Amino acid sequence: MRIQHRYSPTRYAVALLATAVSVGTVAGCDQQVTSRSAPRSTSTAEVTRPMPSGSSAQQQVLAAYNGMWSAMSAAAESSDPTAPALSRHATDFALDKITRGLRIDNDNGVVTRGAVKTAPTITELTPPQDPREARVADCGDDGETAKYTRAGARVPDSNGGRRKIQARLKLVGDRWLVTDFAMLAVGSC
Questions:
Q1: Which of 92, 106, 167, 170 is the most buried (most CB within 10 A)?
Q2: If DSSP codes are grouped into helix, strand and coil, which group holds residue 27?
Q3: pLDDT value, residue 55
Q4: SS3 of 50, please?
Q5: Contact status, residue 4 vs residue 36, Cβ threshold 8 Å
Q6: Any bridge partners for residue 32, and if so which?
Q7: Cα separation, 131 vs 155, whole angstroms
Q8: What is the pLDDT of residue 126?
Q9: What residues contact 143, with CB distance under 8 A and at least 6 apart?
């Protein structure tokens, strides 16, 4: 599955780091989730069933997901798109989104202070017996993060809040990496 977004460059940069470190505001993140596989259900409501906790794969998935947000928060403090920790937790579309947003903030002389609070739940491990892919749902809170100029002035309208986050992860070699993520507007959870 690839999570696609319709965005302006400013909204993209803001949405990207707002989740990770509230790189800005998201005034209604329009997004469309598409999948290469057949739909699972004809229902319009998404059913989220938390996985039982305790397995090694589940712990590794959650560690990778939380690690991505930590790495993004640390990189956003200086808007460093080359921070090595980013690629230790993210790859593919997720890494591209993160580095692109950090590059835009760096070019604009903007940094982010604060960290996102996460509360992820694994909604799917595929295949269940020997997982290679995972889906995570979260209600992340970037309300205590904000963007600032390098001189220290707060960027107007850089407030965050609670928002739904969806992420996909895959096992690459012996470690889990976030391959894509999307977030909804503030107040979506």
A1: 167
A2: coil
A3: 77
A4: coil
A5: no
A6: 4
A7: 42
A8: 95
A9: 22, 159, 160, 161, 162
Q: How far is Cα 161 from Cα 150, in angstroms, rounded to an integer? A: 23
Q: How many CA atoms lie within 13 A of 119 on its CB side?
A: 8
Cβ–Cβ < 8 Å for 189, 142? no
Residues of the chain with pLDDT under 50: 1-54
Domains observed in the chain: 2-35+55-183 (3.10.450.50)
Half-sphere exposure of 98 (CA within 13 A, CB side): 32
Of the chain, the percentage scoring pLDDT greater than 70 comes to: 71
Site of tokens 């995570």 = 136
- The pLDDT score that the predictor gives to residue 22 is 34
Per-residue pLDDT, 160: 86
Estimate the crossing angle of helix 9-21 against helix 56-76, to 10 degrees. 120
Per DSSP, 144 falls in state T
